[in-house]
């Protein structure tokens, strides 16, 4: 079955939906699946831009062959080497052995390492052009969006930007492929979660890329995941700009780790006290139940972060440790912070929280609350103090 869709004359989307994979990069949950988008330009020369993840190879090759109707692929543009886009390279080479692989100096060592491929290479640089006949491709390097070799490809005649992972989204394309054909409200969290989980670590490179690409006239953004943007281009660019500047909203994420419920009680107290001060956007997460993906997404959105943990074997609870190390890896900036802890003997959670605060350089708004078991009246006051101080900061 040919699943290709013409998005402009002689330019096709040949993507596939993946509803089976539970975890993207074997880590990030995919409750609404994910789409892998590849594109084909048919001109005097035929160019494919990025491929797909290998599990759906047969469908992909079938669609490609049907679309090309006997013609061969001349160029494969490799914007990004991550296997969810490079997974069909070897299959393409088997079908089209004369194919030229187009990448930059950082692409080709990865190509050799992943697939043992080192011939038929055409190296491009920032500003290089490749003529296909009527159409021409321009290349721009966007390193660390999301790997060092990442580049984007621009088609000036049609004003299409093949943006790789940039402007991508989780979620399958359930019928529509353009932003005006899909339910963007339904996909909203999957768009922001894709940014915060996958691209979010690279705020600075994202800002550099936005400035570099800002001068291009763009009629469509064709990303490798999620819908093709054509009706909401300013909105998605504005979102990327805001997210990559770490701009946040008024609201507080309370994430806690608790075995027997005492630390959770402190989380609820803090939530209640925040509400008393007019904070409405309060998201309380149990780190043992909620995947870091969702907590990180909320932390990208809201300025206040309050973290609580029981002590565990002289340290912090394991699921809180996972969250802290993820946040440290991502280097998220620009938050207000406070802590609460719980113990039965010598404690242990606090030193790890202190280490986290030193690393993140977020502003601590109040001294931490430290209860032994069920919160007593002083602990309640300490929780109130944290909440009120956080609310005051957020309202200032
Ligand atoms: C396996 C295990 C390890 C623990 N390690 C510590 C510890 O290192 N220091 C401490 O003061 N309490 C320790 N505790 C006790 C809990 O931190 C304490 O009971 C706390 O009040 C539990 O909070 P919760 O009700 O939110 O789970 C440990 C408990 C368990 C089950």
TrEMBL record:
Gene3D superfamilies: 3.40.50.360, Ribonuclease Z/Hydroxyacylglutathione hydrolase-like. Signal peptide: none annotated. Residues 252-391 form the Flavodoxin-like domain. SMART domains: Lactamase_B. InterPro entries: Flavodoxin/NO_synth (IPR008254), Flavoprotein-like_sf (IPR029039), Metallo-B-lactamas (IPR001279), ODP_dom (IPR045761), RibonucZ/Hydroxyglut_hydro (IPR036866), Rubredoxin-O_OxRdtase (IPR016440). One of its GO terms (molecular function) is metal ion binding. In the N-terminal section; belongs to the zinc metallo-hydrolase group 3 family. PANTHER family: ANAEROBIC NITRIC OXIDE REDUCTASE FLAVORUBREDOXIN. This is Flavodoxin-like domain-containing protein. It comes from Odoribacter laneus YIT 12061.
